[in-house]
Every structure is written in structure tokens, then in C-alpha cells.
Amino acid sequence: MSQSQQNNSQSDVLDRAGDVRTGEELDLAKLDPWLKEICPELSGTPKVTQYSGGVSNWTYCLEYPERSLILRRGPEGTKAKGAHDMGREYRLQQSLKSVYQYVPEMIGHTDDESIIGAEFYVMEKLNGVIPRKNLPKSIQMNEATTRELCTKAIDSLIALHKVDYREAGLEHLGKGQGYTERQILGWTERYQKAKTWNVPSGKFVTDWLANNLPTKEHICITHNDFRFDNLVLDSADITHIIGVLDWELATLGDPLMDLGNSLAYWVEAGDDSLMQSTRKQPTHLKGMLTRQEVINYYLDKSGFECNDFTFYEVYGLFRLAGIAQQIYYRYHHKQTRNRAYKNYWIFVHYLLRRCKKIIKNNKK
Fold first, then answer.
1. Which residues pair with 68 in a beta bridge?
2. Does residue 166 have a pLDDT over 70?
3. What's the rounded mean pLDDT across residues 112-137?
4. Which helix H or strand E contains 153, and what residues bound it?
5. Confidence class of residue 13 from pLDDT cuts 50, 70 and 90?
6. Which domains does the chain have, with CATH numbers?
7. Rounded to an integer, what distance in angstroms lies between the CA atom of residue 327 and that of residue 334?
8. Cα gap 37→201, rounded to integer Å
9. CA–CA separation, 162 vs 302, rounded Å?
10. CA distance 109 to 69
């Protein structure tokens, strides 16, 4: 293969955005001058596209002749307190950049909502492959390569959890001790506030979580949305991770809680059809670790101790139910027109039922 053919092949697998959704357009008349003020090298009018992978914040790509930028802003409609804080996400990544190699470069931020109708920030675009539901067809991975990608992904999470946040001056990222209890209380409250008539109360699960808090917690920097589709891979070496995206929920928290969050999205080959239908990342491929293997690998490599992962697994699933219900709440109350959210209430039922099953099996 010639060099040009190889470059074209690599270009074909790079992640790209799609058309901007109706009602979510950017006001370039106001945005373009703002961008050119902080990036004087920019010229012309950008091509604007939008990423469809996220169901929370809105993410756009603005392609100028000189460079491409990524813009992130919160959605319209009711928001949970502390959610979609673009200023915090921007400043957090600025702080992390010096101690964690996978963070993109931050370019600019503003809370002036008159520009595009919401607070937003802009960062560099990392050109690579984002492993969404299915990898690009041109990428062929055998079991060994798939396993290498999987373990390197877990390694990058462990690396984050091993960052010395005090030495890096990142104590301001969160409250620290008491994180586990705050998360259970917080997600219980958020679920209750977002509850609609067609989903369960969730009381059985929330009561169990409140009554089974771990006696120990370790505080570190946590991502809280660490998934394959938030990773950017090198197109020339698909097992090489060049970036970790979506830092909205990062804080000082417990690493096992962070792992539980990740595993809630981990759909493996043996899962039922409903779970398979929700898959957003390629964790079903031959060579990928199962959820239990991920837990074993993480504990072995990180050195963190855990005799029973049940609490963290249930927490991750309940938290995901809370996220899904918050999104469905906006659709139910006509605060968003995105019909992709129409049946999220069914998934909420499923997740809570799965929590109950894990809890009951653990009692046997």
C-alpha cells in the first residue's frame, strides 16, 4: 500500500459529525466573531456539523480552513442542579491537562448566553477513531488486538485514578470524603424529581443502597462517564488511546464507584436482547473482557481492594436509570423534540429490575 493510500485509509475511519439537528442550530453571526477574537488565525465561515452520540450535552464540530474546533453546550429544558456546567467542565480539563495526557487542549469559554443561547466552551479537535456501537468496517481486529484495546482502556482509567490530585493542586475538584453517601442521596433525589407516572418508584433499590454503604472509600480523580465512545483512538494504531472526552461529571470521588458507572454501559456478548439493543460501544466483540473480568483486571492492576462489588454494580445501574429518566423527563414534558428518547422509560424499568435481581442474588 502506498503512503497516500495508507493516509486515505486512515482518513476514512476518523470520527465525523453529522447534520445539525433541527432546532439545535448555532448562530454563526454571533459565534464566528467571538471565535475569531480568541483565535485570530481563523478565516472564512466554518462548516458546522453535530455529533449524534451524546444524549445530554450538545457537541458540534466547526471546520475552518486553518483548524477544526469542538464546541460543547448544555441542552435546552430543565436541568438538574450542577448538571451541564460548561464552565466547570472547561476549567477542570484545563487543570487536568498537566497531569493526565489524554485531555484535549482547552481554547475558550464564555457564560454569555447571548451568543448562542447557552454557556459553552471550545476545545481542540482530536482526530482519531471513536469506538462507538460498531467500529468502522475497514478496521479489522482479531481477538488479541481487541483484548489489548480493552486492557489499555482500563489502564487509562487506572492512570486517572492514580493521579495525585493534591500534588497537582486539584483539591478544588470536589468535596472528597463522604462522596459515596452523597452520590446515593443525590441520585435518589434526582430520580425522584424526574419520575414520571410510567416508571417505578425505585424505592427498593435506593433503600438497599442507603443501607449498604461501604465502610471504606478511597478518594481520587474520577471521570464518571468513562466509556469506549468517550475515547479517541489513533487511526494508525487502534490500540493507542490519544484522548478521553466528556469530562462534565469528573470530580474527586471513589474509584470503585467510577468503575461501577462504566460497567453499567458494558454490554457483553451473553446479555439479553433488550440490553443488546442499548449497546453504544463495541464491548460485545470477541476478545473484550466480560464485566467480571474487567473487575478482576482492574482490582489486580490498580491495587484497590474489594471483596464484594455488588454495591458498586447496583449503584452504576441505578445511576444510569437516573440519567435515562432525566432525559426521558425532558421528552415527556416536550422540552426536547428528539424522538430517540421516546422509549427511555422502558429502559428505566429494565435497569431497576436488573438492580433488584443482583441484590436478591447477592442474598443467596
1. 63
2. yes
3. 92
4. helix 143-161
5. low
6. 12-124 (3.30.200.20), 143-363 (3.90.1200.10)
7. 11
8. 50
9. 8
10. 13
